[in-house]
Write a structure and sequence with these properties.
By secondary structure, the chain is mostly helical. Helix content is 57%, strand content 2%. The two termini are 16 Å apart. 42% of the residues are buried.
Length: 178
Amino acid sequence: MSGRDTGEVTALQAALAAEHAAVYGYGVVGGRISEARRTEARAAYDAHRARRDTLAREVRALGTEPIAASAAYALPFAVADSAAAVRLATELEERVAGVYSDLVRATTGALRREAAGALREAAVRAVRWRGGSVAFPGLAERAGAGTDPAATGAGAPATKAGSASPTPASTPARTPTA
């Protein structure tokens, strides 16, 4: 495998890990979200499941075994009511957008177009959940968040309380690379 292929696989695996975390997170969102937004949460859950399955196929097509979902993920905060579920959904979409931004940078051609589409979809869902937009979806450092862009991907393991996305509870700390 060439260096470029290795970078693509790494970015694809990071996106797949983010989608695993998003699917898990939307399971939590669905259990706490108000009836008025349940259809929206279900649509997002289904969209992330479809993206996850597509990414797994892409990873296999490059001759690599797709990263598996963790059995459990740590949530960044308690999700006790609908307002917290909306906050979690927003966080999930922002994190997924960040990982797809990395995938756009690491790929070319059809895969890049697909990653850009996934980034756009996550950004639109984040706007709907948040009720407003940010200047550069998926690019936390440009949106003024002041965070390390390499650490903004959903599914990046939690290393301290207050982590911004559901993360594998049993995975050691690491920084995704793209």
